[in-house]
Amino acid sequence: MKPVAWLAAGAAVALWTPLILDLRYAWLGLPEQAYGWGVAPLALYLAWERWISWRPTAPPGRRWRAAAWTAAAAGLAVYAAALPVLEANALWPTAQWAVASGAALATLAGLVLAGGPSCAAQLAFPIAFVFTALTWPTRVHLWIIGDLASANARLAAELVSALGYPAVVSGNVIAVANGLVGVDEACSGLRSLQAVWMAAWFFGEYFRLNWPRRLSLVGAALAAALMGNLARTSFLTWKAAARGIAESERWHDSAGAAELVLTLLAVAAIAIWIARHKPRKFRSADAVANHRPACDLGRLAPYLVFVLSCALAAVLGTEAWYRAHEKAAGARIRWEMTAPDASWEPVPLPQGVRDVLRYSEAAGLSSQDPRTGVRVTAFLVSWSGAAANSENPEWHDPTVCLPASGIALQADLGQFIVRIGGVAVPFAGYRFNTGGRTLHVFFCHWDAEIGQARADAATPGLGVRARRLQRVREGRRRNDVAHITFELEGGGDAAAVAWLREWAPRLLHSRLSQD
Q1: Would 249 be classed as within a structural domain?
Q2: Nearest Cα to 511, choosing from 441, 420, 442, 436?
């Protein structure tokens, strides 16, 4: 391989590897994105297919060369600015899409310089295919939780009721005579949707379908995913109604795996049918061996040096920024929850909750006030190290997950500062209605590394976007956080706030840690 080819490979690796390394947190932490590990190899395969069927291209003119250099500079500027943000916020879709867009723009600009705009057009789809591994925007995710998942639950309840087992829907949760179905994953959405979306685009390129057929395949694939989710939910609901909740939970993972496999097979079958069973034309081995694309890598040497230098500078600068701040970081404030007396009983978190949240540690306690009859439940869920799921307060906030479980939000009570062990801890308070009963919820998203909470009193109303950018400015990428939640069933607002101020310091204890 010529030196310029090695230079091209090095530039590509330096440009795309940081994105993949940060995306691994999403692929490991979000069950619906586990398919992401296969996207890069599939993208390389599609690029190879395009390469061996290369059509001759003309060298770029002066205007195209100027446009390519301008686009590359813009793409690399976005890449360098977004990479530190992604390092601290691995699950933030905005950061993922910004880094991927910068890398894609720089890559396409290089293809234009190598073989003209038609050269870039021929490899544009394999590059764009990488975007199927990214996390969907938060608004889309919340729409799936709020509308699609709820509609899926309603249809499943209707089907099971038609079979003679009455089922009632509350949010994304289905109630049958034996208990509740789906309560552990009410805010997790429809898991196979993104994987099927990726598969549809892959098969559309694999069979070289025209764009109307590709779009038809994508639409049919999403419909198949929705039908698969409906079948799975209906099956588990029927199992719960006919055989009990334990039987439904026993089939939970098997049903999910079967749904994904059968849906992907259905997408492949639909793709073959749309392609009308036409055999794909493969080039012979001799044709591939003797193929010489009209692409002059030699003229790319200055550009490749430029891309490689910018990519390495972005990576090394990001690492230097965070390491410098990590060395200066002091002790981390973490929380522990213990029962103050024998009236408090432990509350184990179901396995389904762990599958959704992917936390490091969790503790739950419950008690009932003999005077007022108010039932109180306290939870402490923590993520340590590089676990990224904790940085999604929009997805696992009480104002998202509880309504998804059929519990209606009535009022935002504001913020309440409680001093615990000399530390000011802010809680966001909410009042919900569940089955005609009042439920007060106090929630705190605690960042152990700086000893502050998501709703810090010094910056009231600080939005999620601003908090994430603040993490970058302060050089914090560990995602060492905890969610503290207190739920009180019954009573008035003033009594609930008084309980919080009295009992939170008894249940929670801070500790300093240098690790």
Answers
A1: yes
A2: 420
How far apart, in whole angstroms, are the C-alpha atoms of residue 210 and residue 37?
A: 27
Q: What is the C-alpha to C-alpha distance for residues 65 and 77, in angstroms, rounded to an integer?
A: 18
> Quick check: is 285 in a domain?
no
Q: Are residues 350 and 488 in the same domain?
A: yes
**Full-model pTM:** 0.84
* CB-based burial label for 341 (10 Å; 0-12, 13-18, 19+): exposed
Q: Is 311 helix (H, G, I), strand (E, B) or coil?
A: helix
In 3D space, the residue among 444, 390, 391 whose CA is nearest the CA of residue 416 turns out to be 444
Q: How confident is the model at residue 196 (pLDDT cuts 50, 70, 90)?
A: very high
| pLDDT per position as a tens digit, 201-235 | 999 999 999 999 999 999 999 999 999 999 999 99
Q: What is the distance between the alpha carbons of residues 82 and 77, in angstroms, rounded to a whole number?
A: 9
CA–CA gap between residue 34 and residue 47 (Å, rounded): 22
Classify residue 244 as left (phi > 0), alpha (psi -120 to 50) or beta: left
In the Cβ-directed half-sphere of 466, how many Cα atoms lie within 13 Å?
8
The token pair that represents 315 in the structure block: 């990576």
Q: Is 49 exposed, middle or buried (0-12, 13-18, 19+ CB in 10 A)?
A: middle
Type of residue at 318: T
Domains in the chain, number: 3
CA dihedral sign of residues 258, 263, 269, 272: negative
**What are the residues whose beta carbons fall under 8 Å from the beta carbon of 474, sequence distance 6 or more?**
325, 450
Helices (H) and strands (E) in the chain, counts: 17, 13
**Phi, psi of 465, rounded to the nearest 5 degrees:** -60, -45
Q: Which residue has tokens 């289905």? A: 174
Residue 291, H or E segment: none
| Pairing label, strands 173-176, 481-489 | unpaired
Is residue 483 one of the residues assigned to a domain? yes
Domain span at 162: 138-274
Q: How far is CA 79 from CA 84, 113, 120, 181, 476, in A?
A: 9, 20, 19, 43, 19
- My answer on whether 122 and 263 are in the same domain is no
Asked if residue 493 and residue 345 are part of one domain, the reply reads yes
Say if residue 295's pLDDT is above 70.
no
Q: How far apart are CA 241 and CA 236, in angstroms?
A: 9
